[in-house]
Structures are given as C-alpha cells and as structure tokens.
Amino acid sequence: MADTTPPLETARLRLRPFTAADVDAVHGYHCLEEVARYQYWGPRSRDEVAAEVAKWTEPDVSPDAPDSIVFVVTLKDSGVLIGDMVLLFRDRDARQGEIGFSFNPAHGGRGYATEAAAAILDLGFDRFNLHRIFGRCDARNRASWRLMERLGMRREAHFREHAIFKGGWDEEFYYAMLSREWADLRRGTN
Ligand SMILES: CC(C)(COP(=O)(O)OP(=O)(O)OC[C@H]1O[C@@H](n2cnc3c(N)ncnc32)[C@H](O)[C@@H]1OP(=O)(O)O)[C@@H](O)C(=O)NCCC(=O)NCCS
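# coenzyme A complex -> structure
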C-alpha cells in the first residue's frame, strides 16, 4: 500500500501521487515490451494498469511508516506524465530502502529519470532518514544501471544465474548509496 506524500519539485519535474485519471498515460508506456522487458511483469493491459493505479492511490494506514511511496513524474511546464518512481521500505531497523523507476521512452535521453531519482534519494535520506538505498536491475538493462551510476550509486553485486527470470537465467546487478555518500555527493566533496 502506498503512502500519500506531498509532491516533490525539481528543476524540470513535479513528482506527485497517482490519481485515477493517470491510467491512460501510465498504460501508454507500461504496455510497451521495451518498458516491461526487465520488470517482473509483462506488457500491461489497460485493465492491469487500472488495477495497479487503484492500489497506488489507496492512502496508507500509517503514513509515518509506509511500505512504499509511489509517484508519477510530470513535466513541470506542461503537466505531461512521463514516468513513475517508487521508494520501497525494505528493513525498518536497518533503515534500508529500494528505488524503482519506469519511464515513457518518448521522453528518454534527457536526464529526466536521473533528476527524478535524485529527488527520491533526497526524500529517502532526508525525510525518512534511510541509511542505505539500493536498486536492482537485470545486467542487460544498460539504461537502468547507467542511470544508477549517473547518480553515483556503487555496483555492489553481480548475481550470476541465481534465479529464473522470464524463462531464462537471471543476471542481476545491485547498486547502492549510503546516506553519508549522498550527503558528500550533494556537497561536492566526493
Ligand atoms: C531506466 C530508464 C528510466 C532510463 O531512462 P533514460 O532515458 O536512459 O534516463 P534519463 O532520463 O536519466 O536520461 C539519461 C540520458 O539523457 C542524457 N541527458 C541529457 N540531458 C541530461 C541531463 N540534464 N542530466 C542527465 N542526463 C542527461 C544522458 O547523457 C543519458 O543519455 P545516454 O544514455 O545517451 O548517456 C528507462 O530506460 C526505462 O524506463 N526503462 C524501462 C523500465 C525499466 O527497465 N526500469 C528499470 C527496472 S530495474
């Protein structure tokens, strides 16, 4: 169940909670094979997207300790929806979070996903006092791991043939950032 968090603003973007009116725009890219290829879901039908959006618009019963926070990412100037971001709270005691992202390829290659992900790292470390935020991706998902490297996250692991993913062996990278590493990057001392 998702938290309802106030919108976040970056130089070019506004990250806000999902609404029922977002279904068509989200379906516009969740239906694409290239967006679903390395996700734990296949290209989604409109009904499947509507069911997901219904979950993401439910208010969390405990907003101070949510399971996850989801945002749609919109262009500040036009309001056009270009992607979605999630921050999952994985371990309360150790203050571990996980980041996830999906963007419409029509708006790729302009640094929007990197800008949105940086806002999510700020949120996780500053508002929720997380100690470490990690991201996982298929080793073949170059755009995803390059994004995490652009943010300054470290490659911590390469799991080789450790699971079956969509009928074949899974090769997975783990990337992570510690709170103090992010603070150093933000101060420009790293
Ligand atoms: C992962 C994903 C979000 C990355 O998208 P992206 O367009 O590569 O990322 P960005 O929006 O940050 O854009 C980065 C590109 O814009 C360029 N760029 C242009 N202006 C920029 C700016 N102001 N700041 C940063 N980068 C900029 C970068 O150089 C980079 O280009 P390059 O790949 O040619 O080096 C996208 O590929 C996606 O949604 N994939 C499908 C879903 C998915 O697999 N999600 C991850 C599951 S683990």
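# post-check
Residues 2-135 form a domain with the Aminopeptidase fold (CATH 3.40.630.30).
The chain is about 30% helix and 30% strand.
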